[in-house]
Design a protein that fits this description.
Length: 325
Amino acid sequence: MKKIIRIGTRDSQLAVWQASLVQQQLRQHGTESELVYIKSEGDIDLVTPLYEMGVQGVFTKTLDTALLSNRIDIAVHSMKDVPTQLAKGLQQAAVLPRGSYKDLLVFREDANPLSQLGYANGVWPPVNTRAFTTHDTPFTIATSSVRRKAQWLNRYPHHQIENLRGNVNTRLQKLAGSNWNGAIFAAAGLERIGLRPANSVELDWMLPAPAQGAIVLVAKEKDNDSLAACAALNDAATELCTQIEKDFLRVLMGGCTTPISALARLQGNNVFFHGNILSLDGKEKIDIELDMPVAASAGLGTRAAQQILEKGARGIITSIRNAGS
């Protein structure tokens, strides 16, 4: 009798959507599964010993700990939330085809700021042009992401940033009840659960978090049945691009407190990479762009990280660490 795969998921609307997508795709490949809702870390035994094995990641450690406790067979994660080093005993089992990697500005309908941000006819103006902003009226933009905050302040240094936490539903409700001009969201998260508001626009100038828009499946290293079932869902192009982006992040030793962005894209037989790092206040920004044939792209993320370190990223990283110590 074939094994029924236990899919672990958090109970937010987006997490359940992602897990249900995996369940549907497994069924299409002849594998039955069930969803297991993991409520909190307090429900899991042996937390401390498992953490000593390397379980980390604010949004992923509960499911990864459940994997190592044998409560589930696979964990479904938004890949951008997954640490660059998985816990001992776990491995990446599959990466699904990538959704949108873009960030969105969702603005309050009664406070449309687009014209005053220089946005017109579907186009954001180049930085440092007069069309960039029509006046210096302060705006308040909400986000809990240091990456989004730094990139926004790099473009609009006179604006105020408010902290905005919670799942996407909660954040949309907070925005609606606030006096903020807008808030920044991942497009994929809103679009997947049908919550992208009409009063939103893509921030095509904002470089995404490494692996943003991708969904990854994680399983135990020796669970051959689960690994084989997941392998049928893997998208090689997304796996390649997200690995390059994660390698870039890993070499820079960036975490959720470091504004590091990366995007790798395939065009024909080439892979194009763009990465950057900013200071927390957005005043300093260092970019790196590379392209090469896919056949020669092994180690591209590592090389890009080494080059951006030589361009001055090391100083930014040191300053951020010193500020947090």
